[in-house]
Structures
1.
Amino acid sequence: MYFDNGATTQVDPEVVKAMLPYFTKKYGNASSLHKYGREARKAIEDARTIIANYLNVKPSEVIFTSGGTESDNLAIKGVAEAHGKGHIITSSIEHHAVLNTCKHLEKKGFKITYLPVDKYGFVDLNKLRESIRKDTILVSIMHANNEIGTIEPIEEISKICRREGVLFHTDAVQSFTKVPIKGPDLISISSHKIHGPKGVGALIKKESVKIVRQNDGGNHEFGLRAGTENVPGIVGFAKAVQLSKPSHVQEMTKLRDYIIDKILKIPDSWLNGHREKRLCNNINVSFKNIEGESLLLYLDSKGIAVSTGSACSSHELKPSHVLMAIGLRPEEAHGTIRITLSRFNTKEEADTLIKEVEAGVEKLRRMSPW
Ligand code: PLP
């Protein structure tokens, strides 16, 4: 039973079907002039149009990349290098793709402000306003947090940035197809979080925004991302977008709320993030006197996959920077698991999950030295 869809998702069989011809039959290089090349080019441009229409942007504003990490790097380093110097504002709960990019730029002389968040993980808009300076070139605040699911007020942030004449980038890797996105100048999205293949994503960039390319080579993707295009991946990404439906969000929200209500009946447990303004598929819960990792392994032994944080922090011993930022103590952060749903999860699976979480918590607490 798979409840780690915030890390990655099952590729939808329809997506696989759409991709297959581009491995074995229509395998041309989209830069070639012959029939094979033209077929590949058409597939890419059709996919670009599907994603552009979905987000209500122009096809020329969709730059295909290798995923969310590359899109974040291209957006932030791209804007920074286009300006040469300046100040960037981000939040303390960003994904490492944003945080480490900002740290890299800090070493190069850029000034970075890391905004704190409140107990739910919301960025304080007054603090954002106060932090904008004459030399601020970019604000990068994520749309929805990958660990606690909190949805940031990006329309408000867009308005503030527009009023101040500052560019706004959002990492929408977790929210894409789940929450409507409106306002930012640059948006990072990724295919493998939405039942598409891994290794493909896009940076959505308003035409007027100038960025510097991050890899040199051919003139692919409007001269902004060199490298032979991943045609099957791009086709699969667009198919995954087409297959996403508003009804999936409603179903996941219902299942999420069902699981939260049941799990919070366990004594000394609490939900991290906001109860309503959270991703439809995210449940992040802490249990007093429990090691999240031990609970994860207990559930794993029962055939249930969850995580203790974001995919990339789950091999670290340090408590999650997101849980620390919302005010948890290290031992509380360590007693946390993240359950992330997809449209393929069922009520029956949820019932088994709830039963095993209850049993696991009880067993671990009985063995606990606390
Ligand atoms: N940003 C967020 C919020 C994420 O959750 C992830 C993946 O976990 C990424 C960026 C990285 O995306 P990708 O795995 O496509 O590089």
Note: The chain has a mean pLDDT of 96.
2.
Amino acid sequence: MPDIFSTTETPYAEGKILKHAADGVGVITFNNPDKRNAMSLEMWEGFGEALTSLRDDEAVRVVILRGAGGKAFVSGADISQFEKTRHNAAASEEYAKRSAAQRALLADYPKPTIACIQGFCLGGGMQVAMLADIRIASHDSQFGIPAARLGIAYGFDGLRHLVSLVGPSWARLLMYTGMRIDSAEALRIGLVERVFPEDQLWGETMAIAETISQNAPLAIKAAKITIAQVLKDESARDMGAIKAIGNACMDSADFREGRQAFMEKRRPQFQGR
Ligand code: COA
């Protein structure tokens, strides 16, 4: 993964989380390569702060999540903290609460998110990747949830996403064995959407992000909201939210701009309203 932003990144969690924004694309980097980007609680909290800042930055239209060092996206929770912070049910609940608040931010993120995965994507790293809207990986990546090797119960949200992506049988095989699969298998079972050679991964991910950032933000938001509702049980669906964003789109200046630009054979300039 290129170290292209090193002078313009904002650090969180003592630099173990980095944030960058330019040309409508926000990037959050998990930056603890010595530990294969294992997530400490401080990193979870820094991740939440970076997500919030990019969420509130009106110029940012899409957010990419990536790992530093070329060897891992995120290798899961930092196991070295478990003895202190996650040694029994009560401690684990407190731990889960602190990290769950940040995951909830990502789960309900109002902008499109892309996980750009190079190397190991394990345990809690899989959860982050699965919470992103889209997963793009390099050929040399490895995926797995080794909860059964550690004696950990993987939570409802993580498994809900796993089952919705790969189906219950693959979810069981992955969870019961704790096995790791490579990118080709991950692609085949629907865990990732696209796979590229390592040296093309970042360029291809940026190309998708740039395309998204140039499209109409409200139309993308409508797709995001509606797909999230499709995945809910019928009784829990908020059809009102779908209607509201649909109306916002159809009444928007961007829809007018989209129509005009098409007729005038030019590229549309969308404002998000
Ligand atoms: N938590 C804490 N430390 C971790 C870690 C994690 N999840 N993953 C890797 N590290 C540390 C290793 O302890 C090692 O530290 P050291 O240099 O002080 O010995 C360093 O990162 C490099 O890891 P290493 O195992 O030597 O590298 P590798 O490239 O051979 O293997 C992994 C990488 C990710 C496959 C392997 O480290 C691993 O299996 N990690 C645990 C993954 C896991 O169980 N995640 C789920 C947690 S819920």
Note: The chain has eleven helices and eleven strands.
